[in-house]
Amino acid sequence: MPQPTDFGAVLERLEKIVRQLESEDLDLDGALKLFEEGVERLREARDRLAAAELKVKQVLTDQAGRVRLDDVDG
Question: What pTM value is reported for the model?
């Protein structure tokens, strides 16, 4: 299966994996395979969020190197 290319696709795939894991007609091997993929997708989502947070902080950092959170709070 090709890897999702954007954050929304990663979340969508995670939701599908959870629904499949909750189904009663899944054998142990299938459940383990889905669980492994789910863990990998979760890591991917976490990494994407961390990268986005870093980018936001870089954009909000002023000339003196301080993060200006008042810009975000409105």
Answer: 0.69
| Distance in angstroms (rounded) separating the CA atoms of residues 3 and 36 | 14
Structure tokens at 33: 């395979």
Interacting residues of 43 by C-beta distance below 8 A, sequence separation 6+: none
Q: Does pLDDT of 40 surpass 90?
A: yes
The string over 24-34, giving b where at least 16 C-beta atoms fall within 10 Å of a residue's C-beta and e elsewhere, is: eeeeeeeeeeb
> In the chain, what are the domain boundaries?
7-73
Hey, how many other C-beta atoms are within 10 angstroms of the C-beta on 6?
Answer: 9
